Amino acid sequence: MMIETPLQRMELLVGKENLEKLQNATVLVVGVGGVGSYAIEALARCGVGNLILVDGDVVAISNLNRQIHANFETIGKSKTQVMKERIETYRKDCNVIRYDMFYNEEANKVIFENKIDFVVDAIDTMSSKLTLIKYCKKHKIPFISSMGMANRMDPTKVQVCDLMKTTYDPVAKVMRNLVRKEKIRGKIPVVWSSEHPSVQTVIVNENGITRKQKQPPASSPFVPSAAGLAIASYVTRYIMEKK
Asked: Tell me: the pLDDT tens digits for 120-130?
């Protein structure tokens, strides 16, 4: 008779050897928002043994509709901290390392001191996404990058493919142009949505400095979470298939 464990059902699905691969793996997730929080949640629940979380933001009221770590008690608290505390409520054997910082090129010196098996890019800023992709390509670290998930309602349109095969995604369009400009070669796996995004025209904060602050993108709980789950599935399958 098989002894019941927290990861029993995962082991039944993938086998003991693959579960051990996940338990020995280290995954870096940069960006603990709508996409990142769900990716982290799924990675932790499926057995990944080591998670490195990077985000300098705190939980805001506007996060309550779509970020898994957001509730009334976590508002104003560090996203990486509340995500770590959440994982500890259902995993006793997951090592979580936190970096309360916004990712940039300088952060590479600190973050990549750790041995990392896979990188998840769930960053909002285009320049930072490009910097992380360039680092991963240069150092041959497997990764996946999240494109735009805002202004959408249909989670069934979320899919994974190479960046150059994406369509209808404004974020992916910007990234394609940046990648071409930087002459980055090779495939860039991304999660994206083929749903045509709506256009958000409401000015929420007239005193905002950036366009995002003045007119923040609209977002549902459906699409960011679907993207996060798709990422986690991609990462775990990659780790298990690696010899």
From this structure: 999 999 999 99
